Amino acid sequence: MQIEQAMPSTAKNKSLSPKRLRLQRTWRDWDLYLLLVPGALYFILFKYLPMWGVVISFQDFNPFGGIWGSEWVGLQHFETLLQYDGFWRIFRNSIILSMLNLVFFFPIPIILALMLNEVRKRVFKNFIQSVVYMPHFISWVVVAGITYLMLGTQDGVVNEYIVRFGGDQINFLTSSEWFRPLIVLQSIWKEAGWGTIIFLAALSGVDPQLYEAAVVDGANRWRQLWHITLPAIRSTILILLILRLGHVLDNGFEQIFLMLSATTYNVGDVFETYVYREGLVGGKFSYTTAVGLFKSVIGLIMVVLANRLAKRFGEEGVY
What we know:
Number of strands: 2
Helix content: over 70%
Oligomer: single chain
CATH class of the largest domain: Mainly Alpha
Membrane topology: Multi-pass membrane protein
Shape: flat
Largest sheet: 2 strands, antiparallel
Structural class: mainly alpha
Subcellular location: Cell membrane; Membrane
Organism: Paenibacillus chungangensis
CATH architecture of the largest domain: Orthogonal Bundle
Domain ABC transmembrane type-1: 91-306
Radius of gyration: 26 Å
Number of domains: 2
Main location: membrane
């Protein structure tokens, strides 16, 4: 009798079937599963159910007939996209803008997070974080307005100083040479601070005893950064990089649309603006859905290849 009373609950659980054990654990942690419900509903309603609409990319969609009453055309829309005269232009522009953001924008949040991690004054650190976070909450319309006020040829602050120091005005907003740098700089100013949140969270999990041991061994701040801090967030950097490659053809509609002009179409016209013209303005819903599916397939291929490459070099990857 005493032996049965002393038997731990884990030993009793082993006698239960796996199904009953799962039910028992679910009932025990019901409050945690309840917290999961809002997030699960969000993804089901706004992420998974809308995927059914991809079907119309293989149809000549008729809004009055609906999905079931529309004619099936197979891969016709994909053939039309690949035969479009400007396809390679928008494909090239999308890739170039995405790669520029990947090269110049992606490292900035990492550098900011490493710099903030070195700040020891709590008040000063919180102030800097608040300052770099605030641009994230400004809409792209306001960002574009600020850009026009700063870089315009008429009463633009930057051009006024250029002229004051003896230079000639620069058409920042209508020059195809300046369009891509402006897009990247806008992204850095608006989103770099917000992007530091994940890296700061990863840095907060580094064991302080590692730094103490490094100090005892005579390692300076740069050595600690290289041998402790960066390896601690390497997996986080790699996962975010792989996920970013999944959006290799996504550049955001609002920012590009607000900055685009007739003189910058050759370098700024991307898939998002093309879908806007053909889908919303032209009413070609099936065709633009096929364009979106094409982008998603390319992104999926990039994620799978990058994940396999990461695992080949000994990293965990996304899955």
